Amino acid sequence: MRGAFGNSSCLAAALALALAGCGGGDGGSAPSPIGGTPTPTPVPPPSGRVFADPAAESLSVADVQQIIAQAVGEAQARGLPSTVAVTDRVGNVLAVFNMTGAPAQAALSTRTIAGNAAPGDEVGLQGAMVPNAAAAIAKAITGAYLSSGGNAFSSRTASQIVQEHFPPAPTTVGLESGPLFGVQFSQLPCSDLSARFSAAGPGALIGPKRSPLGLAADPGGFPLYKNGVVVGGIGIAGDGDYGFDPNILDVDVDNEEAIALAGIQGFTPPTAIVADRIPVDGTTLRFSDMTVNDLSPLQTSFGAINGPAGGLVAVTGYAAAAVRAGTTYGSEASGIRRSTNAEFANPDAYILTDGNGAGRYPIRAGTDGASVTQPLSAAEAQAILEEAFNVLSRARAQIRRPLDSRMQATISLVDTHGQVLGIVRSPDGPIFGTDVSLQKARTAAFFSNPAAAQQLLGTPVVPGLTNVPAYVQRVRAFLGDPNALTGTFAFADRSGGNLSRPYFPDGQVGPIAGPLSVETPGDFSPFAVGLQTDLIVPNVGAHLAFVASNGASADTPQQCTQVPDAPGGSKRIANGIQIFPGSVPVYRGNQLIGGIGVSGDGIDQDDMVSFLGLHNAGLRIGGIGNAPNDIRADRIQVAVGGRTVRLRYVSCPFAPFLDDPAQNVCEGL
């Protein structure tokens, strides 16, 4: 069976990844960096269901104050004045504490110096100066959003899985890109899915909330747990650098991470679900390079630090200068709750709501009659989402503990204009997968669309920063196809991901970069990946200026790209694109009519739920299904060094189901 996220090779003997832990099992008996935290006994699901609802837990004002006091006490002991941010599980910022002397800004790491960049040079967000509070909030959201009742991931874990090689190290050049390569550009401040801060009133606490910088790869962000239930995250920014860890072979002495680790004491995840206990393709993930033995005696009194060490601050667009209690995930107020039969028939399904009882994305028919002959009907949309959820409910989880848990994820369906036709979740799917599943659905529909090249060519150039139109010619030259990106081929996210890697084929070192990546492989950075970054730089830049100016400059609209509008005025990719697997386009015969995206628990599982769920919906209702075989992107062959390389379409797990020994379940479909 393939590993947790994908199918990277494990070259332990050649690479001697002593610290990365190639091989690994379930992490063995290695000590936990958080100390011994007992794992609660799993609650069995109610009768007639296969999933249990997460227990109702949330952070109180006193909890938040304690977390901040503990973090500030460690920062004082280390002499590193810092900004501390705490969020709840759905991204509400519960408090931001700024210590006296903390830096006002942090610099996004720069791997290569771009100098005087000409149009076409990809500099991305490297070198940008961002508000320190924005960095802290992004780290806190990362810890909260990547974690669940079955896995606890940190911003260091995120660093490990988003770089050009997995695991990242000077000696791993030649391995595939990180399994969640590109996920850092999700939860963006311009996303039309992510909710925005509201001080009060109905719907004030609904999530998922946006992040000012997407997901963070800079260590110093951890999830917070209460009685074994994930309830939020903490983020620390104090050293003036917002970067990533390019070398997993060493153990860093990281002050920001130590401060965050102090903050989560009393709110640590169960030991059994910490990233260090979860292997991916034989490599154990990393939660923290600091341990509880590195910490000073805890300071738990908020009164002792509030004033003498600094104070609570307001952050434009995110928080008031106060402490607020967290919302309980699964409640109407949180914006994510269990569905009613009228909303989605499966009793395990969760949906997004407006905080006042109404679903944000009820199942509906396609809106794209101006572009397709016969749009998806509401009945077809319902069949696709239901069949995909049925596949999800039977699938074996890959990044959850205990072993043989059920997969948990979010499923999104869109039409060819990028309009949402429905979103459904399992109860404990990680929150990050909500925005990502929508990105994936839209990306598959966008790159399979006859209008894709026209859309990219119509995107404004930002001189010296971005040149989105240039990618069209790069793709056409790379594929040897002057008609590429005009709907002649169907692209799943795995296919577009192949073209987005800095080494092509993925991980094989050579002079060729994928045409949607940076042109020179050595110039890759998690802050400059190519088209994915260039599409969103203007909007993210506008938002950061809005935060830094305390609202004096305009915030970004809820659209993450400058591509031309679709008929009717919407953006087809209004929350950016995604470049790791988990989506397929939806067809009626030879005509594109939408896209389905899945995210939450392993990229091969995500592929399977989208591909097999759509196939089963077609069998159930007729008239719809996956792209015809002869136009799938895996029919595209690229000449590389005297040989040909075929793009990929989907990759399903070998034996994925808990209730059926069937193997190769996607083969031949």
Summed up, what is this model?
The chain is an alpha+beta fold.
Polypeptide structure, described:
By secondary structure, the chain is α+β, with helices and mostly antiparallel strands. The protein has helices spanning 12-15, 61-78, 132-145, 155-161, 255-263, 302-305, 378-394, 432-447, 452-457, 470-479, 493-498, 531-548, 603-621, and strands spanning 83-88, 93-99, 105-108, 129-131, 221-226, 229-237, 241-242, 279-280, 283-284, 310-312, 336-338, 350-352, 410-414, 420-425, 583-588, 591-599, 637-640, 643-646. A five-stranded antiparallel beta sheet has the order 5-6-1-2-10. The chain has a four-stranded antiparallel beta sheet with strand order 14-13-16-15. Helix 2 runs antiparallel to helix 5 (255-263) and helix 7 packs across helix 13. The longest helix is centred in the C-terminal third of the chain and has 19 residues, at 603-621. Residues 1-20 form the signal peptide. This is Heme-binding protein.
Cα shape: globular
Percentage beta strand: 5-15%
- Compute the gyration radius: what is it? 23 Å
Structural class: alpha+beta
Largest sheet: 5 strands, antiparallel
Q: Report the CATH topology name of the largest domain.
A: Beta-Lactamase
- CA(first)-CA(last) distance: 20 Å
Number of strands: 18
- The number of domains is 3
Q: What percent of the residues sit in helical stretches (DSSP H or I)?
A: 10-25%
Spatial strand arrangement across the major sheet: 5-6-1-2-10
Report mean pLDDT, rounded to a whole number: 92
What is the CATH class designation of the largest domain? Alpha Beta
Instruction: Give the uncertain stretches in residue-range form.
Output: 1-29, 113-122
Secondary-structure arrangement, i.e. CATH architecture of the largest domain: 2-Layer Sandwich
In CATH terms, the superfamily of the largest domain is Haem-degrading domain
Subunit organisation of the chains: single chain
| Tally of helical runs | 13
